[in-house]
Design a protein that fits this description.
- The protein is an alpha+beta fold and 180 residues long.
- Helix content is 38%, strand content 24%.
- It is built from five helices and twelve strands.
- β4 and β5 form a beta hairpin.
- α3 packs across α4.
Length: 180
């Protein structure tokens, strides 16, 4: 192995060299700067969409915060995203990263705050019923709903089902009569 122009390489033939990639952890450590005020380990390498980026062992670009999480905690569980608890996209400090669902990540972020703020300002549902304590329910996602609208939808659904069932019963009886 020889150092050719600052890059580790080995000769593979006459005038041909094969580049030897340094380990990911070694390349990763060179691109991190610690901010003493926030405690963030800020990425100083390539940035894409506000997030740090580094090439993995196969030369594919990967997000630096995902690499940091994987080096500290192992693989990211399927279906989860890595959330920056410090809200700093360039941070790769494993203690500032958490694996969460897409929904939770959105709710924690700026968009989630806007959605919650708009919802809190609404005093009436889209059909004009007031969001009073008696008329407001909370669903499994934490969203508010109008109990009056829900009850009306339930009644409408039952009425439509009843009419459909009666029609099906009428058709069955007519078929039975013609079969006899």
């Amino acid at each position: 192995m020889t150092d050719v122009g600052g890059i580790a390489a080995e000769r593979v033939g006459r005038g041909k060299w094969k580049r030897i990639r340094r380990p990911l952890a070694e390349r990763f450590a060179e691109k991190v700067s610690v901010n003493p005020i926030t405690g963030c380990h800020e990425w100083t390498g390539c940035i894409s969409g506000g997030y740090g980026q580094i090439s993995d062992e196969t030369s594919r670009p990967v997000l630096a915060h995902r690499v940091a999480y994987q080096m500290a905690n192992g693989p990211v569980p399927d279906g989860l995203h890595i959330d920056h608890l410090c809200r700093n996209r360039r941070c790769v400090n494993p203690t500032h990263l958490e694996a969460v669902t897409v929904f939770e990540n959105t709710q924690r972020g700026a968009l989630g705050m806007v959605i919650r703020a708009k919802a809190a300002l609404r005093t009436h549902c889209k059909r004009g019923h007031a969001f009073s304590p008696e008329n407001t329910g909370i669903d499994h996602r934490g969203d508010r709903f109008c109990r009056t609208c829900q009850a009306e939808a339930y009644r409408r659904h039952r009425k439509e089902n009843h009419a459909r069932n009666m029609e099906m019963q009428r058709i069955r009886r007519a078929k039975q009569r013609t079969a006899q």
